[in-house]
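$ fold --in a.seq
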Amino acid sequence: MNLRRLLVGLLVFAGLLVAGWLTYRPDRALRAATSAVAEMICAKTFVSGLDPQTTFAETMERPGVRRLRAMMRYRVEPDMRYVDASLLGLHASRATYHDGLGCVSTQGQKPPYVPHTDVAALRAALPPPTLPEFATAAVVEPSDPALKAALDHAFEEPASPPFRRTKAVVVVKDGRLIAERYAANIGVDTPLIGFSMTKTVTNALLGIMTRQGRLSPAIPAPVAEWREANDPRHDITIEQLMRMTSGLALDETNSGFDASSQMNIHRDMAAFVVNAPLMAPPGQRWAYSSASTQILARIIRDAAGGPEQTIEFAWRELFGPLGMRSATLQFDGSGTLQGFANMLASARDWSKLGLLYLGDGVVGGQRILPEGWVAMSAAATLDTDYGAGLWTNRSQHIHAQGRARAGIPRDAFFAFGLLGQRIVIMPSQRMVVVRLGDSIDPDGDIKGVARLVREVIAATETPATAAK
């Protein structure tokens, strides 16, 4: 009898183990980790030109992969231009560099689709930028001692972790670059990864398509998998995806088990996440979700006409007019833009994106984004401090109030990315401040960014504005 009970207990335990494995798929979480490491080393090595050893060391300090440091292995093949990463040889991932297109992951047996676009030729054929040039090629050193001190503070490091690792700071006031600084081995033309600041690029592409009449935030999202009228996801709008209020079960936890983590191991990221069920009525619940933005990326691809047309559209309508010559979009294995993250651009070029929003969507007298688009994008969603592809101080949320108390103006809004990537847009100051780096501080060194903004504002205030 005892033996029978033991066998039954073992069978039940084994069944629970199998059910847990099938439900949570830890193998997928581990593959998501190796994929992220391979992609990061690939992009920073072959696009940014940074040292892979340093990149690996900094990457493995991040939450989510830190515990895997002892097991993680990587290999860079400079001639073949790819990077492999694995956990002691298991759960291997590969990312391969392609000229002008960054790094693409190999997922499954089918090779990734790489857009057939000569980006260098496309870039060379563009007309001169609409946005006036705001600096010479040389690094712009601040002439004001207070402004210099602000940059000094931005690059200070604490004696012990978490380290800030500021890589670049750019300050643009009244359309003129007045101060910038870079870490060692980084210059004015070095493309740096923006992580989720790419969501603001996706916002801009959607805005342009809206101005052209191709799309509208108000329409139901044109997703083939939701086309049936009786599908409860049928009425999810583009704006609800932009605001992350779709109600889909796509909450981002960065655990490795959430859809935003696991979509990275799928050849077609959007095809994986569009199958998520509803967990709340659309428009009534907010949850941060990179997966929602990736659905928007596929909508952009389809509206443009395909992967190649997406690249041409982005350069012709956005990067070209802004003069963002260093911009590098990256794609998934199906040829869809990674619209949620991972675009690279120089700090100066990221500031040009900020100037587009500072100018209410107009640069050099040319309207790029439709009238009212910036205000809509910077308006808070529900009771959060998130807008639509931008974070915002135009909110009563505790985080917005805290940033305002720290010295970031109440009218400011932001492109935010992992590890402290920031484009701070301040209409009341006629200013854009960019901070890029690899901070592993849990809040992305927001205190350091707030100090930078506060000190830059103080250094550039005129007596008239200071008296207000």
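$ fold --in b.seq
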Amino acid sequence: MKKYEIAALNRQELVDRLKELEERLADINFIRVIEQPQNPMVFRNSRRDISRMKKRLHQLATAEKQTV
């Protein structure tokens, strides 16, 4: 996902997508042990997407604290 796509999501959508991506990454890592992946960039892209989403959630939490 791109940065602007993540910024367009609300908090609940981010949490849902984050959980989905973390499960997908765990499945991919499990499959990687058994056989060689067809596209090794999937690992890097998944980790980066997870990182972007966690960063956006942190930004939202920080913004809420400042307004309260």
